[in-house]
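U., I forgot to send this yesterday:
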Amino acid sequence: MSTEKRSIIIHFMDGSSKTLEFPKQAPDDQTQAHRLKEALAARHLVLEAEGTLIVIPFENIKYLQASPVPAKVPDYTIKGATFKG
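Result:
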């Protein structure tokens, strides 16, 4: 498994945000896509960070910003978008 760093910015409903860095979590693109699907269905984000388990309900999250973009994303993903205004 690659040691390439990944990051996610969690933007919360209250206007605050948290940035996390972590190593690649899945051995291949197919597993990564499956895990993304599971996380979206579960409706909560589960993290192990600094020796603690953190569970964040999606209802508390305004949006997530992940980098780099996974090689496999849901079929309904709009690709190549840019923010305007």
